Amino acid sequence: MTKVVTISGPSGVGKSVTLEAIQRLAKNEPWSYPVSVTTRAPRPGEIEGVHYNFITEEKFQEELANGAFIETATVHTYHYGLLRREVEKGWPEIEKSIMIVEIEGMKHLKQTYPDLFSIFMVPGDFSDLAKRLEIRPGTTEEEKALRLTNAIREISEKDEFDIEVINFMGKLDLTVKTVAGLIKGE
Q: What CA–CA distances, in Å, run from 167 to 11, 58, 64, 147?
């Protein structure tokens, strides 16, 4: 059985909202949800330890030097990483560790956990990403443009993943049901 499940996709595709809904629905499942660290500032509504662990650049470099990360990536000028202690916390009682990671992060994790199951989320239409980023609080026009540019490259890498899930605008319930079913069935 696969122990590690990753969810990836371009900025604004709905990864966080999907995983949050799965966490509510699957309260009784023996699953954990490791939280990545990032050097970016929290957006309005983001909660420390829930959405990310927000750390300084100095702390990130310290953890990196100590070999604490099993994957890191630089995305949109910020550093992201996943600590091994977060992924493996609660094993073996925890059956699955489910996390959101960047594309490069999934590739690194696959080296450590070869049986990893990777899900790549794509929008139903590229204009959906622009709409979602437009309403996202705390994102500058420059950041939105960079994220849309990066999304083109990221979507081109979808074949690196085990499965692709389309998140159609206004169909979050269907996306959540699909992703939860994939995780449970994996």
A: 13, 36, 34, 17
Q: What are phi and psi of 55, to 5 degrees?
A: -130, 165
- How long a stretch of residues is the chain? 186
Please compute the mean of the pLDDT values over residues 68-76 and round it to a whole number.
87
For the chain, the domains span: 4-185
Name the residue among 127, 182, 130 with its Cα closest to residue 6.
182
Tell me the residue ranges of DSSP E strands in 55-94.
69-75, 78-83
Which residue has tokens 């996709």?
9
- How far apart, in Å, are the Cα atoms of 12 and each of 8, 84, 135? 11, 26, 10
The CATH number given to 4-185 is 3.40.50.300
pTM of the model: 0.86
Q: What is the pLDDT of residue 41?
A: 92
